[in-house]
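[recover] target loaded
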């Protein structure tokens, strides 16, 4: 990943720190100091602060309850909405949605009264001047649009505490950008914002929704599935612990049968497609690549796959559902469950004559 030149970084640092210097000193970080009576006036600090967070970039201290949160990734704001927190600025939506939020999360956004400013986060580096202009007292990058470097982290930390993804998951394993569970990410953000009780409620609700699906479909136990697609003329599947495959695992499917790389995804040549041969189902993401379905089905080995013989292919062709499936936030999971369960029921009944009706957000 390329970074700005040293000179440009220095200029950004000066600008960022100059803006931060205009705000009040809050322990080791700077935060805005609105006038008395302002709607942005900080709430009384709770006993949850100061708090030390264990992140992939090291320990991060949040001295007091954040009042002005800026997010840098594609779904962190949706997590914050579920916690009752309204960020002041979020990146523009990669799907072009208003307010940076997909339809699945708009109700949650409105519930907390969030009308965040939007900004372009940058594809290879963060614009510290733009971020500092929002006068944040917390910067959230638990699912950033690109890998944050130590230089970027140090630069942004001069503006406000920067919360990146958890260093380890609940089992003590190191995390990667693409495999952090909803529970681990939500709890980290809850610690940073003093909302752990709310996070526990949200997690319990999501767990109950998944349990309801599993209880209704005991016949799915032991059936195998994976999420994949087509990229640059080759099929691929995501790693078993990718958040999309975590969703399938949470509804009761086995997604671990194909996971040999340790990378975020495994690309398959036409000759390697038989690796998918015994899978009962594959969710093929084709919403942003509509020609991919024909390309996949035209591969010589595709007709020999079990999923082709048994009707186990699910074509994710709706762009809103694709966005929700990618977001893996509390609101998007609720949306995805309602959309996927009917397709899974049809795809996993073992009868190739059963039509798997593709979900459409247009009804």
């Amino acid at each position: 990943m390329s970074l700005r030149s040293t000179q440009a970084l220095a200029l950004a640092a000066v600008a960022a720190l100059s803006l931060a210097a205009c705000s009040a000193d809050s322990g080791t970080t700077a935060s805005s100091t609105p006038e008395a009576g302002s709607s942005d006036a900080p709430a009384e600090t709770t006993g949850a602060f100061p708090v030390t967070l264990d992140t992939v970039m090291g320990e991060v201290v949040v001295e007091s309850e954040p009042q002005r949160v800026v997010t840098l990734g594609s779904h962190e704001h949706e997590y914050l909405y579920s916690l009752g927190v309204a960020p002041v600025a979020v990146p523009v939506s990669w799907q072009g949605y208003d307010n940076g939020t997909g339809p699945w999360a708009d109700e949650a956004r409105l519930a907390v009264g969030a009308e965040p400013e939007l900004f372009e986060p940058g594809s290879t580096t963060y614009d510290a001047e733009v971020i500092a202009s929002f006068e944040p007292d917390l910067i959230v990058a638990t699912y950033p649009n690109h890998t944050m470097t130590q230089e970027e982290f140090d630069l942004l930390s001069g503006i406000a505490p920067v919360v990146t993804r958890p260093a380890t998951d609940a089992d003590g394993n190191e995390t990667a950008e693409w495999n952090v569970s909803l529970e681990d990410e939500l709890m980290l953000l809850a610690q940073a914002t003093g909302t752990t009780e709310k996070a526990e409620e949200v997690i319990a609700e999501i767990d109950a929704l998944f349990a309801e699906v599993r209880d209704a479909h005991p016949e799915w136990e032991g059936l195998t599935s994976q999420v994949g697609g087509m990229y640059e003329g080759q099929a691929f599947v995501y790693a078993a612990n990718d958040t999309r495959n975590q969703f399938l695992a949470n509804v009761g499917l086995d997604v671990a049968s194909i996971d040999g790389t340790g990378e975020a995804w495994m690309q398959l040549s036409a000759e390697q497609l038989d690796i998918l041969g015994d899978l009962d189902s594959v969710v093929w993401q084709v919403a942003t690549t509509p020609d991919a379905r024909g390309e996949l089905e035209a591969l010589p080995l595709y007709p020999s796959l079990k999923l082709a013989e048994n009707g186990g292919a699910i074509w994710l062709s709706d762009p809103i559902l694709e966005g929700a499936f990618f977001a893996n936030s509390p609101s998007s999971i609720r949306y995805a469950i309602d959309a996927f369960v009917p397709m899974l029921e049809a795809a996993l009944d073992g009868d190739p004559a059963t039509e798997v009706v593709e979900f459409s957000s247009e009804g």
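[recover] notes: Residues 218-347 form a domain with the Rossmann fold fold (CATH 3.40.50.1980).
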